[in-house]
Amino acid sequence: MKYNNSLRSIYIPLIVAVSLSAGILAGFFLPGRNGDISHAGIRTKPDKITMMLNIIRSNYVDTVDLNTLEESAISAVLKKLDPHSVYIRAKDLKRANEPLQGNFDGIGITFNLLTDTILVISTIPNGPSEKAGLLAGDKIIYVNDSLVAGKGITDEEAMGMLKGPRGTIVKLKILRKGSPGLLSFDITRGKIPIHTVDVAYMVNETTGYIKINNFALTTYDEFVTSLKELLAKGMKKLIIDLRNNPGGVMEAAIQIANQFLAKDELIVYTQGRAFPKSEARATGNGLFPEGDLVLLIDEYTASASEILAGAIQDNDRGTIIGRRSFGKGLVQEPVMFPDGSGMRLTVARYYTPSGRSIQKPYDKGSEKYYEDFYDQFERGEQFSPDTAGEDILPVFKSKGGKTLYGGGGIVPDIFVPADTSEISRYFLLVRNSLIYRFALNYTEANREKLSIFTDVAELEKYLDRQNLTEQFIQFASENGIKRDEAGIRTSGRIIGIQLKAYIARNTLDNKGFYPIWEKLDTTLKYAIGFLGGKQATVK
């Protein structure tokens, strides 16, 4: 596993998440269909595509790879349908399904490529690496007798070496601070969970916070465990953070919605040309049926995340805070081919309880579809509700008569603009890599001192005494970014907080990261103030 820090920014969405460019994670139908080719309605008699490929095979002037041509033809056909119907090659299918399954086979480490070396940031609790004795701070020099340090390997190449079939052995030689020579480890790969609940903690005495990064087969169990832990701590109010959540398994979103809704309240319904209308309703046995509830969304909230937000909003069960969500309301069904490849085919649309299809238009092609992010930015939608176009959107009504908007995405009940007040040119120059690189370097140089901290508040107090911002400014200067006094005055606070947050995550994982990052999160601060009965100061 490797941290992806680009998604942590809460400021200007200059870079669209990689998951978006490949298609938002699907809201899958899981039961009731076997996914075989004949069931999917693919013709068995020769057609134009088959005839064309056969003629090319027999008569084309040069030798060609027919498998590649066939795959290109399938991809081209699916691209003509909608932005979310996609073909996935056999070699890529397992990896594509990992975020939905909630696990993969590997050695169980979080790593970063620091100065061209695989640096172990942390080991997965009870995972193969922890059991074998790997420690945070170890540098992997050899993998299966192949030198990897100083060879310019990519993240993908590193993951390809460390991941592999369950039960197989990977041989590592690592460099550990304070140990003479290299240490050897034989690690048996195992099942490694992908946690979809990033963190759950109490932001104050009565309010809990749960961050869900996507919806997998394991998400519901993770969420319920977190919910029970917070309830045991006296939680009366709950904030669920769905920002940057691209969706995933639809059933997980339905199960989580069921924790908040009354018996027989509609959660979502699906309908397609070959699929009759199908409804999902609450059972009325949820763990949190009455407490105050807030959901946070943004322009990267999509698919199954929108199902959950729509169910809560339409039933007047909670308040949606943030910015208009992505608008992905198409449901994909996985179809497998005999060679191990597959496709995700759009078979239905899903609708919120009020009848809203939150799928945004895609009639102008996939490229324009994803460029809508940039169009929103240029229109100022991230900064003002007046530019969000609510006056031209179709109007619906919630269960209690509240005005709702269709036309693409979930429009929040309370709009909170993206905050750029502390952004400077200097910050934009250093934020993408230098801040995180410094945090890694600092953690590595001070790991022994940092390792004594188990409480994020105590760790933060210690870091506040280390003059981190000034150390970073010197580091940035040494890496080609000149000192900029005006930029430092504008952005010094957020630089300092980000440094502490990344160091805390390198030390305590996400339970260290989020409580510190919270100080930068204007949307979360607004939600906390809202639940406290007052308007939060947006700063």
Describe this structure in words.
This protein has 18 helices and 21 strands. The protein has helices at about 20, 50-60, 65-80, 90-100, 130, 155-160, 220-230, 250-255, 305-315, 365-380, 425-430, 435-445, 445-450, 455-465, 470-480, 485-510, 510-515, 520-530; strands at about 85-90, 105, 110-115, 115-125, 140-145, 145, 170-175, 185-190, 190-195, 195-200, 205-210, 235-240, 265-270, 275-280, 290-295, 320, 330-335, 340-350, 395, 405, 415. The chain folds into 3 domains: about 105-195, PDZ domain (Pdz3 Domain), CATH 2.30.42; about 195-415, 2-enoyl-CoA Hydratase, Chain A, domain 1, CATH 3.90.226.10; about 420-525. Helices cover about 35% and strands about 20% of the residues. About 40% of the residues are buried. The protein is of the alpha+beta class. Mean pLDDT is about 85; it is low at about 1-25 and about 30-45. The strands form 5 sheets. Strands 3, 4, 5, 6, 7 and 8 form a 6-stranded antiparallel β-sheet that branches.
